[in-house]
Design a protein that fits this description.
Layout (H helix, E strand, L loop, with lengths): L1 H21 L2 E3 L13 E8 L9 E3 L6 E6 L3 H12 L7 E15 L5 E14 L2 E15 L3 H18 L14 H16 L9 E3 L2 H6 L5 E7 L2 E8 L5 E3 L7 E4 L2 E5 L5 E4 L3
Parallel strand pairs: 1-4, 2-5
Antiparallel strand pairs: 3-4, 5-6, 6-7, 8-12, 9-10, 10-11, 12-13, 13-14
């Protein structure tokens, strides 16, 4: 009996460990195989200026059917140091960088988890004698649409960070403004204040036939929406001749109505995608 209880406890512990591993999605900056010659920098420091430094957002896969938090495989500061060590060679000079992160967030949604978003905002400074000068900045978002988007989204996010850092290794400061560390930290407080008062992205109502027009926020067609009991009952597209045509959801990439994105489903309807 004792052996049976021990076996059950062991199996329970193993099951719990496996379940715990499935409750997070690890984010890693994948180290590239190439080298950058004549880099101006061989050292990088890190400041995390996000509102919530513990939160990288969430993804979801069809395997787990769970909203899964994204966590770094190792601390982001260590990953950035490993990245720089991996790409520079003996020709690198001894310049120092400061990487200031102000936004990094993942989000995967959709009826089949086919919409993946990655948001990145960061600054790179050159450090000299405890002063800092801006050499590069990034403020971008990535949209991936495909079945099982989570894995591809994580890879694209890694590639975006690698491209941002490696493309900056030959850059010198782009202006004469000199910052102290206190000045950089004030940028952190400014970013936090902006994020706290941000009400979200203002999207233009209409129908979009592809990602390009959506990214530019230029709808391919205007829409007329009718409501019944507070719910959408009919959607008409206004065509080139200013005529109303009943919309077929399967023929559009997505629709925006009152700052909400609607994506087509396999069942002939539209699914609201809420940006958080």
């Amino acid at each position: 009996m004792k052996n049976t209880i021990t076996l059950l406890l062991t199996l329970f512990a193993l099951t719990t460990a496996v379940s715990a591993q499935q409750l997070v999605a690890n984010f890693s900056i994948n180290l590239p195989a190439y080298k950058i010659q004549n880099s101006l920098y061989n050292k990088i420091d890190f400041i995390d200026s996000r509102i919530d430094v513990t939160n990288l957002g969430t993804v979801q896969t069809n395997e787990s059917l769970l909203v899964t938090p994204v966590v770094p495989s190792v601390h982001l500061s260590t990953q950035l140091k490993n990245l720089l060590q991996a790409v520079v060679d003996s020709t690198a000079e001894h310049g120092e960088l400061l990487f200031q992160l102000t936004k990094l967030r993942f989000q995967v949604e959709g009826a089949k988890n086919e919409f993946g978003y990655f948001f990145l905002k960061a600054n790179l400074f050159s450090k000299t004698n405890r002063t800092y000068r801006t050499i590069n900045s990034i403020d971008t978002s990535i949209l991936v649409r495909q079945p099982e988007v989570a894995g591809t989204l994580l890879l694209n996010a890694s590639a975006a960070i690698i491209q941002f850092v490696t493309s900056s290794l030959s850059l010198t400061p782009d202006d004469s403004t000199v910052y102290t560390l206190d000045d950089v930290l004030r940028i952190e407080m400014s970013e936090k204040d902006h994020e706290l008062h941000d009400t979200g992205i203002a999207l233009v109502d209409g129908v979009y036939f592809n990602h390009e027009t959506f990214a530019k926020q230029k709808p391919d067609r205007k829409i007329e929406v009718k409501l019944k009991d507070g719910f959408i009952s009919r959607i008409d597209i206004i065509d080139d001749k200013n005529k109303r045509v009943r919309m077929n959801p399967q023929e559009v990439y997505l629709m925006v109505y009152k700052n909400t994105i609607y994506i087509p489903t396999d069942y002939g309807g539209l699914y609201p995608l809420i940006l958080k």
